[in-house]
Design brief:
Layout lengths: L4 E5 L2 E5 L27 E2 L54 E4 L7 E8 L2 E6 L4 E4 L4 E3 L8 E8 L2 E6 L4 E4 L4 E3 L8 E8 L2 E6 L4 E4 L4 E3 L8 E8 L2 E6 L3 E4 L4 E3 L8 E8 L2 E6 L3 E5 L4 E5 L6 E4 L4 E4 L4 E6 L2 E7 L6 E6 L2 E5 L5 E4 L4 E4 L7 E8 L2 E6 L6 E4 L4 E3 L8 E8 L2 E6 L6 E4 L4 E5 L4 E8 L2 E6 L2 E4 L4 E5 L4 E8 L2 E6 L3 E5 L4 E6 L5 E8 L2 E6 L4 E4 L4 E4 L7 E8 L2 E6 L4 E4 L4 E4 L7 E6 L3 E6 L4 E5 L5
Antiparallel strand pairs: 1-2, 2-3, 4-59, 5-6, 6-7, 7-8, 9-10, 10-11, 11-12, 13-14, 14-15, 15-16, 17-18, 18-19, 19-20, 21-22, 22-23, 23-24, 25-26, 26-27, 27-28, 29-30, 30-31, 31-32, 33-34, 34-35, 35-36, 37-38, 38-39, 39-40, 41-42, 42-43, 43-44, 45-46, 46-47, 47-48, 49-50, 50-51, 51-52, 53-54, ...
């Protein structure tokens, strides 16, 4: 921690800012602030989290901000960049299995922890085991061998960094690799702090306190089983922590409860010595400890997170603004245009702030840049006619189709549907899309504009053999013969449709059945599952796959359906087959599976976002999902 403490509890973030000279500021009643210090407490609604995990920032060992001078001239406001576009030089974050973020850039996982040693040595962490490293030129991904949420970072140097998080997660970085350390706990570890490499504390739920002596992690007895949210100290014999009901102190021998005024919940610590400690409460109450007695005062501000260096105090607001504290007020330095959850700085020429959907704002002493995406809504379908003409369909926004031309994604204008769920076509100037919003129906793209062909029921998937032989499914199966749409089956609701020809079409149902069309009528082939089925695809009439809930995968060999072991129990939403030995399936929690003709294996996607659709060619695979996620894998297969 540098001059301030930042965290959030149950969706609320709080922090305490550093001191200013005595007598400068007074509380609402006109009384001087406690101890002659000006303290700001902030609370703000937390940003949306992935997979229900709380992400809270943590900071380095104490460095104490003094009276704030006038800010350096380099901090003067600069023209605000377009916050919807990532810097052109930023390379996408890729996994070891070759899955690269294409939107947003450099990656789209929520970030909530920052720690660093200087402007060219910064670590950021978040959900899905995400740990990123900045070297002064760009961000790269560090493999972590975990998909658990990383909630906090702390270290003594760039070759001695700790990360803690969900399910007792403890990771250590030695300058080359992150390794798992056995913590002996399965509790959610909220925060980490230490006085040195052989004196590190990690705290968490149900009274969890762990201590690292340089060799191993051992539990310490807490005064109660209350969740512990925050920790801060001045040395191995002077450590403070806040539980859900009290302040506790460690003297090098034992943790004891301190006699402090009742606070709704302690949400942050700051101080310069054991005789000058501050604790901030969720309701705006401030406690000050002089080494003998805790006393209470009140102050409130509306910020999201703060960070103090030796010469300045920075903050981020709920509006995504980066602020500088100057002469008792906040001045906007940068508007990121979106959610920011925490901030870290090594000085006025190196400021970093991170937040939801992978947003990173950075000031290098000359200009601000913000990485972000063009859209953050869920993408339900991806389809293309070539690698230079790929389309995705989003939900709950106008202009819901985005087109990739091989270089960038751009919105398709004049598209009325607010929830595109299916897409299919044979050429760039003839694409059909199914609409799942209240108006329902099918749209057709003729190369220049999208036109509604039919309305009525919501439709979730579409497939065809030509512009005069189209099948769209939803509550029913509807067929287009080039002139009009007719209803062919009411045995739904249906979730997917695919075929090898006009007389060989398959449809999956919410009730776990597969229907087949032989050119004359639809009949139920088999009830494969008591759980819903979703995507269906194949490479020919004797090679068809259908996927569904609980990781169910079934294969049809031209004679019968058989269950396959899928390597996951997560729901699978979609499947794409390039051949009998090259099939991809995607689903919840970022699952991507590949089938090589013998077995299914899981690939590292690098995210825990929901993945709803996959489209593949011989050389390119695109996957889309929640929060604007677009992943791409480029490859070349042997003939």
């Amino acid at each position: 921690m540098i001059g301030g403490k930042v965290d959030f509890v149950d969706g609320v973030r709080m922090a305490v800012l550093s001191q200013t000279p005595p007598g400068r500021m007074r509380d609402r009643g006109g009384h001087p602030c406690v101890g002659g210090h000006f303290i700001i407490l902030f609370c703000a609604a937390a940003a949306a989290s992935c997979a229900g995990d709380r992400i809270r920032p943590t900071h380095t060992e104490p460095r104490h901000a003094t009276a704030l001078p006038s800010p350096d001239a380099s901090l003067a406001p600069t023209p605000l960049p377009d916050h919807t576009a990532a810097p052109a030089a930023q390379k996408p974050i890729c996994t070891e299995d070759g899955w690269c973020w294409q939107h947003p850039l450099p990656q789209g996982n929520q970030l909530g922890a920052l720690w660093g040693t200087g402007p060219t040595e910064v670590f950021a962490a978040g959900v899905a085991g995400t740990i990123l490293h900045y070297d002064g030129r760009g961000w790269t991904r560090h493999p972590t061998k975990t998909v658990q949420t990383v909630a906090a970072l702390w270290g003594t140097s760039s070759k001695d960094v700790f990360a803690v998080g969900r399910d007792g997660l403890v990771l250590h970085y030695d300058g080359s690799n992150w390794s798992l350390q056995p913590s002996g706990s399965h509790e959610y570890l909220e925060e980490i702090w230490g006085s040195g490499p052989a004196d590190v504390f990690a705290i968490g739920h149900n009274g969890t306190i762990l201590h690292y002596d340089g060799q191993k992690w051992l539990p310490q007895a807490a005064p109660s089983n209350d969740d512990i949210w925050h920790i801060f100290g001045f040395g191995p014999r002077d450590v403070y922590a806040a539980s859900s009901s009290s302040i506790i102190h460690y003297d090098g021998v034992a943790w004891t409860t301190q006699n402090a005024p009742v606070v709704k919940r302690i949400v942050g610590f700051w101080g310069k010595s054991g005789k000058d400690v501050f604790a901030a409460g969720m309701d705006g109450q401030i406690l000050h400890y002089d080494g003998n007695l805790w006393q209470s005062t009140q102050t409130v501000a509306a910020l999201e997170a703060v960070w103090a260096t030796d010469s300045a105090v920075f903050a981020v607001s709920r509006q995504g603004d980066v602020l500088l504290f100057e002469r008792g007020a906040w001045r906007v330095l940068h508007r990121s245009g979106g959610d920011l959850s925490t901030i870290w700085a090594s000085g006025p020429d190196a400021i970093f702030a991170v937040g939801g959907v992978g947003r990173i704002s950075h000031y290098n002493g000359r200009e601000w840049t913000t990485t972000a995406g063009n859209l953050s809504h869920d993408l339900h379908v991806v389809f293309g006619t070539s690698s230079m003409n790929v389309l995705v369909g989003a939900s709950m926004i106008p202009n819901t189709v985005m087109r990739f031309d091989g270089h960038s994604w751009r919105p398709e204008p004049d598209f009325e549907c607010h929830e595109i769920l299916g897409m299919w076509g044979l050429a760039a100037d003839s694409i059909f899309a199914t609409c799942g919003d209240g108006s329902g129906g099918v749209y057709h793209y003729n190369g220049s504009v999208w036109n509604r062909q039919t309305d009525g029921e919501n439709l979730v998937a579409v497939w065809g053999t030509s512009s005069r032989d189209i099948f769209a499914v939803g509550a029913t199966i509807r067929h287009f013969d080039g002139e009009r749409w007719t209803t062919q089956s009411r045995d739904g609701p249906f979730r997917g449709v695919w075929g090898s020809g006009p007389r060989d079409v398959f449809a999956s149902t919410q009730a776990g059945a597969v229907l087949h069309y032989d050119g004359l009528r639809w009949r139920i082939m088999s009830r494969l599952s008591d759980l819903p089925l979703s995507g269906v695809a194949g490479s020919g009439p004797n090679d068809v796959f259908v996927v569904g809930a609980a990781g169910r995968v079934f294969h049809y060999d031209g004679h019968s359906w058989a269950a396959q072991i899928s390597a996951t129990d997560l729901t699978l939403h979609a499947v794409s087959a390039l051949g009998p030995r090259d099939v991809y399936a995607v689903g919840e929690d970022g699952v991507i599976l590949h089938y090589d003709g013998s077995a299914w294996s899981r690939e590292t996607s690098g995210t825990d976002h929901q993945l709803y659709s996959v489209w593949a060619t011989k050389n390119d695979i695109f996957v889309v999902g929640s929060l604007g996620t677009i992943l791409h894998k480029g490859r070349r297969l042997d003939p």
